[in-house]
Amino acid sequence: MPAALNRSTARLVDPAQEDRFLATQLPGLRRDVLLVAGLVLVYNVVFFVVNLLRGPAWGLLGLSDHVVLAAAAVAVMAAVGRTPTYRATARVVVVGFGVYALVALALGGDRTSTGWLLLSLHSAAILCLHARLPFPVTAVLAPAWSVASLLAATTAGVDGRDLGTAVFLVATVNLVGLAAAYRVSAQARLLFAQTEALERLTTLDPVTGLANRRGWEEALEREWERCAREGTPLGLVLVDVDHFKQVNDTFGHAAGDRALAVVAGLLTAALRRPGDLAARLGGDEFGLLLPGTDADGTASTAARLLADARRARAGAPDGDAGSGLTVSVGVHATRPRAAGAAETAAAVSAADAALYRAKAAGRDQVADAG
Questions:
Q1: Whole-model pTM above 0.85?
Q2: What angle do CA 44, 45, 49 make, to 5 degrees?
Q3: What is the pLDDT of residues 220-263, one digit of tens each?
Q4: How far apart are CA 106 and CA 110, in angstroms?
Q5: CB-based contacts of 320: which residues, under 8 Å, 6+ apart?
Q6: Which parts pass through the membrane (predicted)?
């Protein structure tokens, strides 16, 4: 099993990555819960009608388990439509199992030989549902569901042969189903981890290890929408390496790449918050995305970056590509009001205009769009 997975639980080792995976499973989990709850509802309605037609000898107690379970299925279906997160939906599933176990043990009614086949098929449906849940949850709840069913059957006067058949069918379904659920759970998480790794490769710059332009644009769109929704500011810092072509011509492209890596390190060191992003936008141009940072904070970050670049230049040995390296910086802070490509493009253009003012004023300085 690859190191990305915990072998005993089939969960991703990285908790944050596991949370992201679970978030992708929420629509499917809701759909499967609705499907299984619908099957439970139909099952109990059908058997309620069948037992009702048997006449008064069946008794109200014999019908009550079907009524309670059908009502619980309806409640589960209603609750799932309102659950905001994966974990909330999973809790609904756990509560539904608890209700079933209590009803089955307290009001378990007649079990027939044909009923065991239905029970095993029902177990299979439950296991399909639990393939979307963390495997430890599946491994506990699915057998518990079957044990509760079998315990209920022992209170209904079932003979030994029928009960033995039931145990065999349900045990087989559980063993095969749990093995399948483990495999599905592990494979789904591995595929998710591999997909994320591929996505990271497509959004990273290979020279500096920073986000590339695609990663920058995706993050800008995402953070712009979030800031507009929450009413928070957003800062943009654009950085250009001055006379970078001369650096390449004088020291060679390998030295130029090392100089770009030095600038990338300076940008990374300037980040202060988890949502901040440093990116290489192309060639010798870089950017900082600072969600939640106002004009003063953005200007302070840009000033600190410029000071760090000057110290790095002063500390570079003579003849090194970094010894003559300077940067120009353009700054723009805004408070997004509405999401849209035109709005983000205007903000980037304002920062870019500030950057060119810094270059026109003599380079190695910061200019503000304000």
A1: no
A2: 115
A3: 999 999 899 889 999 999 999 998 888 887 888 888 888 899 99
A4: 13
A5: 251, 255
A6: 33-53, 59-80, 92-109, 140-158, 164-182
What's the N-to-C CA distance of the chain in angstroms? 55
Tokens read off for 96: 């539904």
Three-class DSSP category at 354:
helix
Task: Write out pLDDT tens, residues 55-88.
Answer: 655 556 567 777 888 888 899 899 988 888 888 8
Query: What does the alpha-carbon distance between residue 240 and residue 236 come to, in Å, rounded to a whole number?
Result: 13
Contact 335/234 with Cβ under 8 angstroms? yes
With beta carbons less than 8 A apart as the criterion, state whether 291 and 214 touch. no
Residue 222: CB atoms within 10 Å: 15
Q: Under the phi-then-psi rule, with left for phi > 0, alpha for psi from -120 to 50, and beta for the rest, what region is 252?
A: left
CA 49, 50, 55, 61: dihedral to nearest 10 degrees? -70
**Cα angle: 322, vertex 327, 330; to 5 degrees:** 165
Element at 44 (helix H, strand E): helix 15-53
pLDDT for the residue 225: 92
Phi, psi of 326 (to 5 degrees): -125, 160
**Rg of the chain on CA atoms, in Å:** 31
* Token pair belonging to 113: 């030989």
**C-beta separation of 142 from 178 below 8 A:** yes
In sequence order, what DSSP letters do the residues of 111-124 get, joined into one string? --HHHHHHHHHHHH
Instruction: Decide: 29 and 90 in contact? Cβ < 8 Å.
Output: yes
